[in-house]
């Protein structure tokens, strides 16, 4: 299978792992090599409830037995997507109340940018240095990493980038700004958490200028930081909230949420302001609804802080420089990309899956399922410490 993977499935790097997966259950992925691997990555923050959670699998099965796709987004009233949107409205503060369901995080970012431009009638977009928002042309245009963009120009015009957590840059937000797009916790940059005071000033500046604040919660959303959405830690509410990844519990999904007034602007002049065939698909919505219900009804979010503290208390080693992040999105600085890669390889040999951050490869990524147990945290951290002991610094 690996040979065909490299031959027939388009590759994105010259060095994909090509790990052959047999099945995945709970916190473990089982390889075709007959071994099981503890998963500290969770499909890059996607498997909120671990692998093949029975509530998600049953929700998909039940929906599949009723019907699959019946119509493009927005025409028919279907139980699962409607229920998902209603529950999201109940679980988020006002004025967030209406959700547009799409197929991926990047599409949700694109939709949110269109919505902000349409609602404000303005053209300028402000994003942040070192941000990552996805890989469609729109999402790439607002991502702040030159290496990934330079061969794809021209991209969206009128986009500028300001410093993350830098108050002095807030004055660059003006009456011409349609929206300011920010990851509540900057992911690819190494799980950087902004200051509460900064977030409140940013919100205030957006209010003063009439620019919409869009928060990208595609990674921290759905409980990963101990709140349903990370903005709740900062005492602010975005005008547009973008989600994805963990929202699906393992199926492809994205969404953007806003007030009724803002969202209504996609319905006229032009009507069909955003169109998608599969957005709101009932099978996907059933999985996402089951995920949301479990996150809200279980004690998983309450346990996040305890689990973070356990990680931080165990991951003490002379080769660990610092640990960024919040909750169950932690980035462990091992000093160099080459060293981090070798440690990740050694962890894999020992039965633990870890990864690295997209722009900051010296940071080892820990973004496990929220369902990870205390014993599994201990098991995985022991492997990391052994790998750090064994792999010489170079
Ligand atoms: N925004 C953030 C913060 C992300 O981490 C990602 C994916 O890694 C995206 C947007 C894009 O989401 P997707 O890969 O589903 O298009």
Keywords summarizing the entry:
single chain; 394 residues; alpha/beta; Aspartate Aminotransferase, domain 1; Aspartate Aminotransferase, domain 2; seven-stranded mixed β-sheet; four-stranded mixed β-sheet; 15 strands; binds pyridoxal-5'-phosphate
State the gist of this model:
With 394 residues, the protein is of the alpha/beta class.
Note down, in words, how this protein is organized:
The chain has 394 residues and is of the alpha/beta class. It has 13 helices and 15 strands. The protein has helices at 2-8, 42-45, 54-66, 79-91, 105-120, 137-141, 146-149, 196-209, 260-263, 282-297, 300-314, 337-349, 374-390; strands spanning 21-25, 28-31, 36-39, 98-102, 124-128, 159-162, 177-183, 212-216, 240-244, 254-258, 322-326, 329-333, 352-353, 355-356, 363-366. The protein has a seven-stranded mixed beta sheet with strand order 4-10-9-8-7-5-6, sandwiched between helices. A four-stranded mixed beta sheet has the order 1-2-3-13. The protein has a four-stranded antiparallel beta sheet with strand order 11-12-15-14, covered by helices on one side. A hairpin with a 2-residue loop joins strand 11 (322-326) and strand 12 (329-333). The radius of gyration is 21 Å and the shape is globular. The model has no long low-confidence stretch (mean pLDDT 97). Pyridoxal-5'-phosphate (PLP) is lined by residues 104-106, 109, 132-134, 183, 187, 216, 218-219, 244-245, 254.
